[in-house]
């Protein structure tokens, strides 16, 4: 399994709107691509901005290429990104996932 990591920053005021927009663009498009296995979005606030990290999971590099294009190290951006004052990383990182275990939530 391959993890694809992309980060961006937006002003706090755009955090909720951009997160919804991210679901309608990046998550929707990647999940429609064969070989997509799942995604996670991480959120943290710092100095009036929100940093979002999107990690998508894929079966193989060729599946990522079908989503991202021939240079999979380049971030896939969307036309309306600027409306959210997006500060995107222009490149992405890829990792081989060697462990992926989640424990069921304890409910007491």
Describe the fold and architecture.
- The chain has 108 residues and is of the alpha+beta class.
- It has a single domain (2-96), classed as 2-Layer Sandwich (Alpha-Beta Plaits).
- Helices cover 23% and strands 34% of the residues.
- The protein has two helices and five strands.
- It has helices at residues 15-31, 61-68; strands at 2-11, 36-46, 49-58, 87-88, 93-96.
- Strands 1, 2, 3, 4 and 5 form a five-stranded antiparallel sheet that branches.
- 17% of the residues are buried.
- The model has no long low-confidence stretch (mean pLDDT 93).
The shape is: globular
Pick out the low-confidence regions: none
Pairing-aware structural class of the strands and helices?
Answer: alpha+beta
CATH class: Alpha Beta
Compute the average pLDDT.
Answer: 93
- Radius of gyration (CA) equals 15 Å
Number of strands: 5
- The residue fraction in helices comes out at 10-25%
CATH architecture: 2-Layer Sandwich
As for the number of domains, it is 1
Alpha plus pi helix count: 2
Taken as a percent bin, the fraction of beta residues is 25-35%
Q: N- to C-terminal separation?
A: 33 Å
Give me the strand/helix succession.
Answer: EHEEHEE
CATH topology: Alpha-Beta Plaits
Largest sheet: 5 strands, antiparallel
Search tags:
single chain; 108 residues; alpha+beta; Alpha-Beta Plaits; five-stranded antiparallel beta sheet; 2 helices; 5 strands; 23% helix; globular
């Amino acid at each position: 399994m391959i993890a694809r990591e992309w980060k961006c920053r937006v002003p706090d005021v755009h955090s909720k709107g951009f997160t919804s927009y991210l679901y309608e663009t990046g998550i929707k498009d990647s999940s429609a691509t064969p070989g997509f296995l799942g995604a996670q979005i991480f959120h943290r606030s710092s100095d009036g901005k929100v940093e979002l990290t999107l990690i998508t999971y894929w079966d193989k590099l060729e599946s990522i290429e079908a989503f991202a294009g021939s240079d999979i190290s380049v971030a896939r951006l969307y036309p309306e990104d600027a409306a959210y004052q997006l500060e995107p990383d222009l490149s992405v990182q890829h990792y081989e996932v060697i462990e992926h275990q989640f424990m069921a939530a304890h409910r007491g």
